[in-house]
Amino acid sequence: MTKIAFLGLGVMGYPMAGHLANAGYDITVYNRTNSKAKKWISKFPGNMEDTPSKAVEDADFVMSCVGNDNDLLDITLGDAGAFSAMKNGSIFIDHTTVSEDVTERLYQKSKTLGISFVDAPISGGQAGAENGILSIMCGGDQVDYEKVEPILEVIQKFVVELVAQARGKRLKCAIR
Hints:
Distance between the termini: 26 Å
Radius of gyration: 15 Å
């Protein structure tokens, strides 16, 4: 069974992780506010951990949906950050809307660690997250996108593929 760690259970992440759990994925969640993670596991099948590094152990995919640049850097590269514990070949999927500099930094860092990074900011608001009908704009390497696409389909209704070149990289946009 595919193992997913989901980091960040705010108004968007909470229902997104729930859809994945209900779809049969093996989910481990982490949230800075421990009570949100406890509430999530009382409602959905899955586990919780108290640090990002513990949550991502043995995960095939790690998904994040946090507030801003600093939050994302903290859960990825900070003390007990996810990148330090991700297994070789795993893929980090970031749904946070962050600066281009942070995205590029994490993409480059992932390559040095033997993991992959897909930038996947979301649109559709809380209702879109709750109803599993988000728009997800993905940037990253084509091979990585193809691996994450089946997971993203759980939280989006259908996919329209748009391919463009930006900074020499192929970009895809999945729209519901």
